[in-house]
Design a protein that fits this description.
The longest helix is centred in the N-terminal third of the chain and has 33 residues, at about 85-115. The protein has helices spanning about 5-15, 40-50, 85-115, 140-150, 160-165, 185-200, 265-270, 325-335, 380-395, 420-440, 445-455; strands at about 25-35, 55-60, 75, 125-130, 155, 175-180, 180-185, 205, 210-215, 220, 225-235, 250-260, 280, 285-290, 295-300, 340-350, 360, 370-375. Helix 1 (about 5-15) crosses helix 6. The chain has eleven helices and 18 strands. Bound molecules: flavin-adenine dinucleotide (FAD).
C-alpha cells in the first residue's frame, strides 16, 4: 500500500472518491492494457475513438494516476527540447513531423480537458529553459540550431529582466522561453482521463497487479483474482517495465523528488511569480518548478535514487527523503519563500533511456503485445502521442504512428548490466552533483568528475555535458 500519496493525487481524490473493484473473475476482452497512467488511459481513449465497440480492460496495480502520472511536476511539454536526438533517430522529415505533433499534442490536451470538463488547471503560459550558472549557458544552442534548419522557432530569447520576471528568481544566468508548453495538475488529468475512459465503456480494475504475462496467439495477463485473455495486450508500465527481462537494459528507473508549499500568494507576488510558468535549469540533477493556480510553489529535483536492479518495491512510495534538500534549493532561488511552510514532499519513479526519448514497440516473438515507456522526465505531453502510437499498433494500422522510428523498439545502445549499473550509477550521480556544485561556485570541476558525469544518460533536456 502506498503510504504517502503526492499532494496532487490527494487533492484530486478529494473530488473523486470512485474506486474500481479489483478483478475477481476470468475475463475475455479485445485489448488488455496493463497500467492506468497517462499512457494506458490515452491508449484506451484512442482505441475507443477508433472502435467504439472494442472491449477494453485496464489492469492497474494501484489506482489510476498512482504512478508517475499523478506524482510529476505537471509540465506539459513538447519534444522541442529533445529535437537534436529526435532528428538523429528519425531524420529531418519524420523528426520534424513528431516535433510539430508534440506541440499540437499540448494544445490537444488542453482542448480535451475543456471538452470533457477535466478541471486540471491547464495553463498555457510557457516554459523557461534556463542556465542556473555560467557553465550551463547555451545548453539550448544546438537545439535551437537544429530547429532553425527545419524552419521551427519555438523559443524566444530572454533578456535579464524578463528572465528574472518569468522565473521569479535572480538565480538564473540566462534562458529561453518556449511559449508552447503548459502546466497542469497532473493527478486531476489522470483521474479525469480515467472518468472519460469509463464513460466510453472501458472496464477498469484497480488494486489489480499483473502477476504474469502469458505470451501466445491469445496472450493473457494473470492477476490474483482472475486472468484476462485478450487479442492484444498493451504494457503501459513506465518505470515498472523494468520488471520484464526485455527492458532491464533499456529503461532506468530513477527517483525524482517534489515538494509543494502551502498557498503563499503574497510571497509569490513579491517574487513576481503569479503565472504558473514552468521553469527548469540545465543541471543533470535538474531543478524544475512552477506555481499553481492556488498560489503554491511546486519544486522538484531530478536524479534521485537508482534502485538496485530497477526493483522499485515500495521505496518510492514514502515521503521524499530529499525534502530538506529540495526545500533548500527552492529557498536559494526564491528567498521570499524562506518562511513558507512545505505542505507535502513526495517521490516518484521517473525513467531514463539512453536517448532521453521514450520508445514503443511490439515484443519480439509476440506480435500482439505492445509497449511504450521511457519518457525521461517529459511524459505529460508526449503520453498523448504514446496513446496514438499504441492504439495504432493494436489496430494494426500501418500508418505514420505505428511506423515511426521511435515505435520500433529501443535503440541498440544498452545501459550497463547490474551490479555495474547500480554502483556505477551512484558514482555518476555523485559526480554530476559535484560538477553542478563546482560550476555554481564558478570553479572548474575535476577532470575525473567531468568524465564520470559524461556517462549520465540523457535527461529532461540536453545539458552541456551531453
Ligand atoms: C517526480 C516526477 C516528476 C516528473 N515531472 C514531469 C513533468 O513535470 N513533466 C513531464 O512531462 N513529465 C514528468 N515526469 C514524467 C511523467 O510523469 C511520466 O513520463 C508519465 O507520467 C508516464 O506515464 P505512464 O502512464 O507511462 O506511467 P505511470 O503513470 O507510471 O503509469 C504506469 C502504471 O503502471 C502501473 N503498474 C506497474 N506495474 C504494474 C503491474 N504489474 N500490474 C498492473 N499495473 C502496474 C503503476 O501502478 C502505474 O500506475 C515526472 C516523473 C516523476 C516521477
Amino acid at each position: 500500500m502506498i503510504v504517502n500519496r503526492s499532494f496532487w493525487l490527494r487533492q484530486a481524490l478529494e473530488h473523486d472518491t470512485d474506486v474500481a473493484e479489483p478483478l475477481a473473475r476470468d475475463l475475455k476482452v479485445d485489448t488488455c492494457i496493463v497500467g492506468g497512467g497517462f499512457t494506458g488511459l490515452w491508449t484506451a481513449i484512442n482505441l475507443k475513438r477508433h472502435e467504439p465497440a472494442m472491449e477494453i480492460a485496464i489492469i492497474e496495480k494501484d489506482i489510476c494516476g498512482g504512478g508517475a502520472s499523478g506524482r510529476n511536476g505537471g509540465f506539459c511539454m513538447t519534444w522541442m527540447s529533445k529535437s537534436t536526438t529526435l532528428l538523429k533517430l528519425c531524420g529531418g522529415q519524420e523528426g520534424g513531423r513528431l516535433l510539430r505533433e508534440s506541440a499540437l499534442g499540448v494544445k490537444a490536451i488542453g482542448e480535451f480537458c475543456r471538452d470533457h470538463d477535466i478541471d486540471c488547471q491547464f495553463q498555457h503560459n510557457g516554459w523557461v529553459w534556463t542556465a542556473s550558472n555560467a557553465a550551463q549557458a547555451g545548453a539550448w544552442d544546438s537545439t535551437l540550431e537544429a530547429l532553425d534548419k527545419l524552419g521551427l522557432h519555438p523559443y524566444e530569447p530572454l533578456d535579464q529582466n524578463r528572465l528574472a520576471e518569468l522565473t521569479g528568481s535572480e538565480g538564473h544566468h540566462s534562458g529561453v522561453l518556449e511559449p508552447g508548453v503548459a502546466t497542469l495538475q497532473p493527478a486531476m488529468l489522470a483521474r479525469g482521463l480515467r472518468r472519460v475512459a469509463l464513460e466510453l465503456g472501458v472496464k477498469i480494475f484497480e488494486s489489480t497487479a499483473m502477476l504474469e504475462l502469458i505470451r501466445g496467439p491469445t496472450p493473457s495477463v494473470r492477476t490474483a483474482g482472475g486472468t484476462v485473455t485478450a487479442d492484444a495486450v498493451v504494457l503501459a508500465l513506465n518505470a515498472w517495465a523494468h520488471e520484464l527481462p526485455e527492458f532491464r537494459r533499456t529503461v532506468l528507473p530513477i527517483a525524482a523528488d517534489v515538494i509543494a508549499t502551502r498557498p503563499a500568494h503574497e510571497h509569490l507576488q513579491s517574487a513576481g511569480l503569479h503565472n504558473c510558468v514552468a521553469v527548469s535549469d540545465s543541471r543533470t540533477l535538474v531543478n524544475f518548478y512552477r506555481t499553481t493556480t492556488e498560489g503554491r510553489m511546486v519544486w522538484g529535483v531530478g536524479g534521485g535514487a537508482i534502485p538496485f536492479a530497477g526493483r522499485l518495491g515500495t521505496s518510492f512510495d514514502y515521503e521524499s527523503p530529499r525534502r530538506d534538500q529540495v526545500a533548500a534549493m527552492m529557498r536559494r532561488f526564491v528567498p521570499s519563500l524562506e518562511s513558507v511552510e512545505i505542505e507535502a514532499a513526495w517521490r516518484g519513479p521517473a525513467t531514463r533511456t539512453m536517448t532521453g526519448l521514450p520508445f514503443f514497440g511490439t515484443l519480439s516473438g509476440s506480435d500482439n503485445i505492445h509497449y511504450g515507456h521511457g519518457y525521461t522526465g517529459n511524459g505529460v505531453g508526449p503520453c498523448y502521442l504514446g496513446g496514438k502510437i499504441l492504439a495504432s499498433k493494436v489496430l494494426q494500422q500501418r500508418d505514420e504512428w505505428s511506423e515511426t522510428p521511435i515505435a520500433q523498439g529501443p535503440v541498440q545502445k544498452r545501459l550497463p548490466p547490474e551490479p555495474v549499473r547500480y554502483f556505477g550509477g551512484g558514482l555518476v550521480r555523485a559526480a554530476c552533483a559535484r560538477v553542478d556544485h563546482a560550476q555554481d561556485e564558478s570553479r572548474q570541476p575535476s577532470n575525473l568528475d567531468r568524465h564520470l558525469a559524461s556517462f549520465a544518460p540523457a535527461g529532461l533536456a540536453p545539458t552541456k555535458q551531453q
